[in-house]
Amino acid sequence: MKKKSKPKKSNFKKIASFLLEFRGLKYIQRASIPYLRGPVKENIAEHCFYTTLIGWTLAKLEKLDQDKVIKMCLIHDLAEARGGERNLINKFYSSPLNELKMLGEISENYSIKDFKLTELFQEFDKQKTKEAKVARDADVLSQLIWEKECFDMGNRKAAKWVDFSLSRLKTKSGKKLGQELKKADSDEWWMNIFKRYILHTKFL
Predict the structure, then answer these.
(1) What number of other Cβ atoms are within 10 A of residue 135's Cβ?
(2) Taken in order 27, 118, 99, 110, is the CA torsion positive or negative?
(3) 2: pLDDT confidence band, cut at 50, 70 and 90?
(4) In CATH, which superfamily holds the domain spanning 12-200?
(5) Cα(17)–Cα(24) distance, rounded to whole angstroms?
(6) Whole-number Å distance between alpha carbons of 12 and 89
(7) Roughly how many angstroms between the first and final C-alpha of the chain, as a whole number?
(8) How far from 90 is each of 24, 32, 84, 124, CA to CA, in Å?
(9) Is 37 helix (H, G, I), strand (E, B) or coil?
(10) Could you tell me if 37 and 99 are in contact, meaning their C-beta atoms sit under 8 angstroms apart?
(11) Which of 77, 102, 149, 158 sits at a 20 to 30 Å CA gap from 33?
(12) What is the enclosing helix (H) or strand (E) of 12?
């Protein structure tokens, strides 16, 4: 009788290294920050979080594959842990980073080919599917929210950045959400909560 082969144990050491490598994204500042010159700072990890949340929202609005959009948003800047980030100006004067190669090596290094990082990134990069277009709009809207925050904090020139970001949006839901974000009062959400509860709250 053939002995049953034992199931392979997950390589937790490699998974730990994978997570630690991409923890580094919180220390890489967005490349566009020097041009707008604040006052709000943002790193790649923060940008990816907002992109993912926006992507999930847009996928629901557009009735698309939410799981795929969420994953594309999560990994769209993953290669920047190794290659760094370039802004739109930098890209005019330098060769494109081989992000696909980086993600392929990451998949190989950490034995996570079943994560399908390269497949997800290729789909995002080629912009042929509706999910990819939604993920790209989420990326742009995440940038727009940062620009809007800078504007609300007193940087008047950020208004031009917001308008440029609006012009880059492609999906119906993305464009509508972008317009709402542009005209939104950033304080309204918490002021509404405050007004609802302030009269019924006892302070020590």
Answers:
(1) 30
(2) positive
(3) low
(4) Hypothetical protein af1432 (1.10.3210.10)
(5) 11
(6) 40
(7) 76
(8) 22, 10, 12, 21
(9) coil
(10) no
(11) 102
(12) helix 12-23
Which among 144, 18, 120, 105 is positioned nearest to 69, based on CA atoms?
Answer: 120
Q: For the chain, what are the domain ranges?
A: 12-200
Give the CA distances from residue 76 to residues 52, 121, 133, 194, in Å, rounded to whole numbers and listed in that order: 10, 6, 12, 37
* Whole-number Å distance between alpha carbons of 12 and 35: 41
Tokens of 33: 């920050």
Q: Which two tokens stand for residue 140?
A: 């742009």
pLDDT band at 6 (very low <50, low <70, confident <90, very high): low
Which tokens is 74 given?
């999560």
Q: What is the pLDDT of residue 7?
A: 45
Rounded to the nearest angstrom, the gap between the alpha carbon of residue 60 and the centroid of all alpha carbons in its chain is 17
How far is the C-alpha of 48 from the C-alpha of 146, rounded, in Å? Answer: 12
Which residue, chain included where needed, has tokens 């007193």?
Answer: 154
Give tens-digit pLDDT for 38-94. Answer: 899 999 999 999 999 999 999 999 999 999 999 999 999 999 999 999 888 888 898
Which helix or strand (DSSP H or E) is residue 102 part of?
helix 99-109
User: Is the confidence at residue 96, as pLDDT, over 90?
Assistant: no
